[in-house]
Design goal:
This is Autotransporter. The protein is mainly beta. The protein has two helices and 29 strands. Strand 21 and strand 22 form a beta hairpin.
Length: about 400
Amino acid sequence: MPSCTSRRNAQRLPRALLSCLLLAGTPLLAQGLAFRELVLQPGEHAASLAADGTVVGTSVDDGVLRWPPEASSPEPLGGGPISYTSDVTPALSKNGRTIAVVRRTMQTPPAPILAPWFRQDEGSWAPLPGLSLHDAFPYGVSADGTRIVGAGRMQPVPGQPAPNRPWIWDAAAGQRTLPVPAELEGGEAWAVGDDGRVAIGHFYYRPDPAFPNRYYYGARWSDGVASMLRDAEGRPLGRAMACNADCSMIVGGGPGGDVTPDDPAWALAWFWTEAGGATYLDPSGLPAGAQPPYTAWDLSDDGTTIVGTYTILAEEPFGALPARRPFLWTAASGMRDLGTLLASQGIAFGGEGWELVASAVSPDGRQVLLNGRDTDSMPRAAVVTLPGDRLFGDGFDPGLPDR
């Protein structure tokens, strides 16, 4: 086995050596909690998680990467060059069958456009057929892999704005835009139910078109009819990020519309159901210094487990800057810092100087994907598997309330 060296010098190291670096100081199993760190090179990231533990991400060199269940090293799937990535893209269906990415292509006359491509099962990459928009970003795939949603733009007209338009796609009907209320500027669709009847995302508008600042409003489309998500007092919710397989449960967060920072509900994470409406997730179980925005990124299929991020102010060479930290919320225990959970089990992953996002959770609520960067700005990612009983021997108990 090769000797291990500092990650600070791990610029394009062989994956076998990076595997050594990961294994050298990290326990892989602690009192029933399984921890799998993913091998990443500079210019790579992990983004989406399937039910069986498969992870996909991207590489500037290899296009899409896939980490099979239980594997630390990825396999390249091609699909590049990738033009855009985020904490949740490439998008992967929960059954692992469909991956969606965006590629920059050229058209005639020469002009770059952003085009969604997809891969189903073990087939070849192909452009998404039946497109109606000039360019498009795919942000989400239904759990069964049959539908894709995102945002795109119509053919630009010189001198006129080109706002984002939410869209939905399936093989039978192709790409269709989803409506945006006339008083708002644009929107994006981020998730969709298996039957395609319900999609979620957000609307937005800019108070001053000369500046990029936007107000965001949680959005839901039911049978093609748009509605704004609000709490019991009528305040608009922030961006809707994910839903379960039938989109009967929705999570999101961040600032909602023109709700101001002096409002107690400003930028809280939330959970919404059609029957019960909106519930804000109480952040009081997080460490001192936690502050908004709080954002719920994903949820289990039964809604009892939610993952996301909160914000802290981190000291940087040029002053204090906001940084994201991951949280785990359960119906029994509320919101807890996921880095504290790992540290309590002897796993050093996250902490001071890191930027870390809990971007996905498996449908059964057992596996959580973490991705971000460490103090050396190196990409880091891991899959945490929670014990079935969610009990931890050192007293940290995400299954039982402690307050």
